[in-house]
Amino acid sequence: MGDTASMTDPRVTVLVACLCAAWCRTCDAYVETFQHLRTEFPTARFVWVDVEDHAALLDDLDVVDFPTLVIASGDRPLFAGPVLPQPAVASQLIRTALAGGLSGTASMPPSVLHGLQQLAAVDAA
């Protein structure tokens, strides 16, 4: 999935990663929602991550449900958790993150966040 913004673009302030699995039917339903979010928030950076394709990267992260959304600003994870496949839920989270309203209390190993940022950069190329 192509991205609308580059991590080196100064307008990009938020990374949004969707962690899914190819076998997950809920994730299949979430693809359209995720594409809509990319269009709605052109200054955010989006990356779709199949957890089985990137198992080594996500080994230190306890993903318990799908889809799981990770929202980060720089090296600060702001949100990491499962989301309903409803556009309004994720849209509100992203809008709040872009406005600086998420506190950044999500717990995530720095290596995982760094890996997601690298995947996002490769996805844009």
Characterise the protein shown here.
38% of the residues lie in helices and 20% in strands. By secondary structure, the chain is of the alpha+beta class. A four-stranded mixed β-sheet has the order 2-1-3-4, with helices on both faces. The protein is globular. The termini are close together. This is Thioredoxin. It comes from Rubrivivax albus. It holds the Pfam family Thioredoxin.
What descriptive keywords fit this protein?
125 residues; 4 helices; Glutaredoxin; alpha+beta; 4 strands; Thioredoxin-like_sf; disordered N terminus
CATH topology: Glutaredoxin
- The strand order across the widest sheet is 2-1-3-4
Q: Whole-number average pLDDT?
A: 85
- Using the coordinates above, name the CATH class: Alpha Beta
| Helical stretch tally | 4
Quickly count the domains. 1
Structural class category: alpha+beta
Terminal CA distance reads 11 Å
Topology readout:
Elements: E1 15-20, H1 25-40, E2 45-50, H2 55-58, E3 68-73, E4 76-82, H3 87-98, H4 110-124
Parallel strand pairs: 1-2
Antiparallel strand pairs: 1-3, 3-4
Summarize the structure.
The chain is an alpha+beta fold and 125 residues long. The chain has four helices and four strands; from the N terminus they run E-H-E-H-E-E-H-H. 38% of the residues lie in helices and 20% in strands.
